[in-house]
Amino acid sequence: MTDWDAIVVGAGPAGSALACRLRPHGRVLLLERDAAVAPASRRIGESLPGAARVLLQRMGAFERFLADGHAERGATVSAWDREEPVWFDHLRDPNGPGWHLDRARFDAGLRETAVAAGAVLIEDCGRLRVSRSADAWCVDVEAQGTQHRAPVLVDASGRGATVARQLGLARRSDDALICLYAHLPADADDEDQCTRICADRDGWWYSVRIPSGQRVLALHLDADDPALKTLRDPERFLAKAKRQPLLADALQSAVAVEVHARPAGSATLDVEALADTPPGFFAIGDAMLAFDPIASQGIFHALASAESAASAIERPSGNAASARKSYLDEMQSVHARYREHLHATYAGVVRYRHASFWVRRIEG
Ligand SMILES: Cc1cc2nc3c(=O)[nH]c(=O)nc-3n(C[C@H](O)[C@H](O)[C@H](O)COP(=O)(O)OP(=O)(O)OC[C@H]3O[C@@H](n4cnc5c(N)ncnc54)[C@H](O)[C@@H]3O)c2cc1C
C-alpha cells in the first residue's frame, strides 16, 4: 500500500491541472486509462479564452503553453439568428483574444508539466477499484497489482465520470446531443483564422482551422436524428456542410475524410448526492459538469474547477467539510449561469424555432 496526499483519476486537462496545482505541497498520484495522449485527429475541443492565461500561470504551465505554438484565436463569424453573418472580435476582450489549440499538444503539455513538478503518473492503468477504509480512500490498480491510499480522491475522468459512478452517484444528462466531426487535411491556401458557426434546421455547425493547418468541421445533432447514420458517410457529411454559405466559402477544396461521433450534450453529477459522499471526494472538469460545445467553455471549466478544487483541498483539515461545500456551491452556481446562457443562445435561432431540434432546446 502506497500513501499519497491525493489520488487523481484521469490525466486530461482537469486532472493534469489539478496535479500541477497540488504538487508543490503534496504527494500526488495521477492515474490515466490511455497509454498516451490521443492523436490530434481524435481530439476535439480547441477554443480557449484569454481568461485561461491566469489559471495556466498559477499552475506553472504558461511558459510551456506559450512554447507549444498554439494559434491566436481570430474572430467568430456566425450565421445564427439570421442567414447574414455577424462578426464578433475577441480582440476587444480585456483578457486577450485567446487561442486555437493544438489539442493533443495542449493535453500532453499539461500532463508533462504535472510530472515535471513531481506528480507520479501511471498511464495505461487499466481497471481501477475504489474503496473506503478507515478515513482514507483506497484505489487498487488491478493490472499492476498495486494499492494506493490517500485522504483525497478526485474524479477527473471526463464525461464517463467513472469514479463517481463506482461510488453510485447518478449523472444527469440534460440533452442527447451528438457531435459528428472530421479533421479535414491541411490546405495551403486556407489562411482563415475565424471560428465559423451556423445554425441548420436540424442542428448546428462549427468549423475552425487548427495550428496543424487541418480544419475541424463539426455538426451537432440530436441522438435520435434519423440522418445521423448516413451523415457518418464522409461525402454526405461534407456535401451537407457545403450547403451552408458560411461554410462553403471555407470548404472549397476540402477533401472528405473519416467522420467521428461523440456525445456532446450537457451533463452534471448530482451535487446533493456528491455532498453526502465520505470526505475528501471531489469531481472536476467534465466529470463534474460537461457543457454543450456551443458554450465553448469546457477546457476553461476544466482548469477553473481544478483551481477551485485545489483551494478547497489545501484548506486546513478542520475546515475540510465547509471547503468542499463551498466548492460544490460554486459548481452549482456555474451550472445555473450556464443553463441560463445556453437557453438564451438557442432561443436566438428564431428562423428554425418550429424544427424539432430547436423546439427541444427552446421549450424543453
Ligand atoms: C464536439 C466538442 C467540441 C468541444 N469544443 C470545445 C471548445 O472549443 N472549447 C472548450 O473549451 N471545450 C470544448 N469542448 C469540451 C472540452 O473538450 C472538454 O470540456 C475537456 O476536454 C474536459 O477536460 P477533462 O479533463 O475534464 O476531461 P477529458 O478531456 O475527457 O479527460 C479525461 C481523461 O480521463 C481519462 N480517463 C477516463 N476514464 C478513466 C479511467 N477509468 N481511469 C483513468 N483515466 C480515465 C481519459 O483517458 C482522459 O485522458 C468540446 C467538446 C466536444 C464534445
Automatic annotation (TrEMBL):
UniProt cross-references to SUPFAM superfamilies, sorted A to Z: FAD/NAD(P)-binding domain
Pfam families assigned to the protein according to its UniProt record, in alphabetical order: Trp_halogenase (PF04820)
InterPro entries: FAD/NAD-bd_sf, Flavin-dep_Halogenase_NPB, Flavin_halogenase
Protein name from the UniProt record: Tryptophan 7-halogenase
Organism: Lysobacter hankyongensis
